[in-house]
Amino acid sequence: MARRLLLRRSPWAAGDRAAHVVAAQEAPLSRHRRREVRVRRPALARQSEDPASAGRDCRGQSRAQADQLFSGRLGMSDLPARFDRNIRLFGEEGQRKLRATNVAVIGVGGLGSPLVQHLALLGVGGITLVDDEELDETNRNRFVGAVNDDPVPGSPKVELAARLVRKIDPTIRVTPIRASLISEEVFATVKQTDWIFGCFDEDGPRAILNELCAAYAKSYIDLASDVPEEGVYGGRICVAWQGGGCLHCLDALDRRDVEAYLSTDAEKAGRAAIYGVPVEVLRETGPSVSPINGVVSALAATEFMAAVTGMRQPQRLINYYGHVPKLTTAKPKPDCYYCKGIRGKPQDADAERFLRMPHLRERRRRETRRISEPVE
Ligand SMILES: [Zn+2]
């Protein structure tokens, strides 16, 4: 997962414009939100491990008083005590909904591995992990779940992530699939799964998975982190949910990058001859660090949690500007072909045509071989 898109169009440009609109829309809610935070603070304060403060939060409220606030959510639960703090936030019904949900994480690397950790801790019922790569030495700074003894080569990323899930909660159904997105097995997985997470570092696979999820009316969350220039870093998440927003209508794809990904080697050579240096030649390995990936993966897990448990509707796009820092949201453009035209119509979409493009699989096989070569 070392390939980066340093010279691509900044994914945050559109978010900046939208930020002013959203800020104006949300201003009247600020007082209400502050009140909500005050109500929830007792539960957060009880997490202190300081024995002196045990049973009492920072404002002197007793644990019994704080428990009273959430007693309606606790009930006589038969759910394991490990979910107690979850249930205090989104209720027993929300926890059961998470337990009844199957997710697939496609791309288990710097973004995917911290996401998997969040999903397992939330208590999701089934987690399918998809990646065709092995861990390499340069992944060790950000792959959550890898330990120093894991051999390189010889540690498929999906197996490391599956081990992480099993160690957190052995009752979760975890299925590692060592394959790339462009495979019958992964397409079949998407069709059978409730929620799909895409953790790629290229826009080509993003566009394919976006279309596949639209065709089969699957909920799709796409994650991206980026360092487009020195001193600028962050990321964004897109939530394609119930036909109200996707990577296309949220303007989150670089069309040139998608076209380059889908073209054959001959087409790429022809394009380079006409237009100059092909875009992928301009790519280089950029920075990628655990904390930035951690913020982006936590944002994705939070919107997933909100949508599944019914806490609120998920945001469709959240931009994270780590260097400022700030978060902004944006709304999709109307009348999207993917959200409205082909949603739930697999025969009209024919997303399976990507499986009939042998050059995509062949190029991926070449790249995977190159990635697996030991670092000099
Ligand atoms: Zn759309």
Structural account:
Residues 31-43 have a biased composition (Basic residues). It comes from Bradyrhizobium zhanjiangense. Residues 84-323 form the THIF-type NAD/FAD binding fold domain. This is ThiF family adenylyltransferase. The chain is of the alpha/beta class. It has one domain (90-372): 3-Layer(aba) Sandwich (Rossmann fold), CATH 3.40.50.720. It contains 14 helices and eight strands. It has helices spanning 13-26, 30-45, 63-74, 84-99, 112-122, 157-168, 184-191, 203-215, 255-262, 265-275, 290-309, 337-341, 346-349, 358-372; strands spanning 102-106, 126-130, 173-177, 195-198, 219-229, 232-240, 317-321, 326-330. It has an eight-stranded mixed β-sheet with strand order 3-2-1-4-5-6-7-8, with helices on both faces. The longest helix has 20 residues, at 290-309. Zinc ion binds next to helix 12.
